[in-house]
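Continuing the batch. This is chain 6 of the set; chains 1 through 5 are on the previous pages. Same settings as before, nothing changed between runs. Recording input and output for traceability.
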Amino acid sequence: MSTAEADRPRTRRRRRPPRDEAATMTLIAHLKELRNRIAVALLFILIGTAIAFWWYDHGLGQFIRAPYCSIPSDDRALGTGGTVGDCRLLVTDVFGGALIRLKIAFIAGVVLSAPFWLWQIWAFLTPGLKQNEKRYGVSFVAAASLLFAGGSALAYVSLQAGLTLLLGLAGDNVAIALTAQDYIGFVISILLAFGVSFEVPLVAVALNLVGVLSYAALAKARRWIFFLTIVFAAFITPTQDPFTMLLMALPMCVLFELAIQIARVVDKRRARRDGTAFYAGLDDDEASPLDARPSALDTRPTRLDGPG
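Output for chain 6:
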């Protein structure tokens, strides 16, 4: 072994991580696994629906009727008491009560079993993801769940004020008797509207993380984002009243501002990692401040020059 070879630093070959067997499955095997995952997810939803069907008579029904029952009893045609158990919703057909209970039980069952069927989806997608993609996936699922729950909770709190405002416009000589179908549909629509709308700022964060949307673009369009958020809230709220619209729009504006600040931090870290932090503020058509002068020649002799 020569001296040059002895002095050469030895590099250890990095061992490849073991392959995930699920990542090398055939198409047929993937389809079979997907079928099994869907079957298990549906089983969890069925169990959650059965639990919610029993829960309906033990608090769930009263919880859903609470915003309507908070309306003064004099304004309600059915029920004379002021408590939740004394007010009634109107059913106008034979199967209406059963269908309403099944509908509520199914929706509540999907929510109750969400951790279990979401895990089945995650277990099916995980083998095809990289390590950083898995980390981002867990973070986004957790953030999306919290945002949806927060939006739905805010919607439920606003239901009482929204119903009182809307039903009060009918006048003093009108008693309200809502059908169960209309009221349940209204409650579900407003809960979904608030929950889904709170997910929109998270999409901006996702686009920034993948490099599609930059902090500069978000900051430049901040005023338009806030304006379009108010317009979006005006269209998506089922009640169409200013109180509910502002109750949705203001938290969304706060969440969008938070998304913009997250994009600012992400872009700074990305620029620092790429070594382009000095040029991050330049426009696309602006020349970079490079020193174009030629460097001085190195006239020192080297071993490659030979005996001189």
